[in-house]
UniProtKB/TrEMBL annotation:
Superkingdom, natural source: Bacteria
Pfam families xrefs: Rrf2
Protein name: Rrf2 family transcriptional regulator
Organism of this sequence: Rhizobium croatiense
SUPFAM superfamilies membership: Winged helix' DNA-binding domain
Coiled-coil regions listed in the entry: none
Length: 151
């Protein structure tokens, strides 16, 4: 099963959008993500419906961030993307009458529910601003290191 990278990719896009003054076209975002503009529009539509971005059609149009990063959590974007599967593992259903399979599936289901609840709580506690601030700190550290090497 392939990883679903939509959450990571949209977080990336939103932080870039916050750093730029002008709106970002679907084509620009598609180029950044190495995908098709139609995929971008379809994915961004969920974010627009939730009020995180807006879009303008035509010349000079594009996508604009409408809420500050401090008001958007990772969980918000996860939900806006339709709550993609969090885990690649899951129960087997080859032998539904097998008592061993039933016991295994029950144990896995309990563990998966606990793991999902923990992960969703964590996603809800991290804002995009926190991620952007971490990026800024790393950028400043890199710049300082480059300047000290140039001296």
């Amino acid at each position: 099963m392939r990883n679903d990278s939509r959450l990571s990719r949209m977080l990336h896009v939103l932080i870039h959008m916050d750093r730029h003054v002008h709106s970002a076209t679907s084509e620009m975002i598609a180029k950044m993500l190495n995908t098709n503009p139609v995929v971008v529009r379809r994915t961004m539509a969920g974010l627009r419906e939730r009020g995180y971005v807006s879009s303008e059609k035509g010349h000079g149009g594009g996508w604009t961030l409408v809420r500050p990063l401090s008001e958007i959590t990772l969980l918000d974007i996860y939900n806006a993307l339709g709550e993609p599967h969090l885990f690649a593992i899951g129960p087997a259903d080859d032998q539904p009458q097998c008592l061993v399979e039933q016991a295994v599936n029950s144990a896995l289901a309990d563990a998966m529910l606990e793991a999902k609840a923990l992960l969703l709580r964590r996603l809800g506690s991290v804002t995009l601003k926190q991620i952007a601030d971490e990026f800024e700190a790393k950028l400043e550290a890199r710049s300082a290191a480059a300047n000290s090497c140039a001296s």
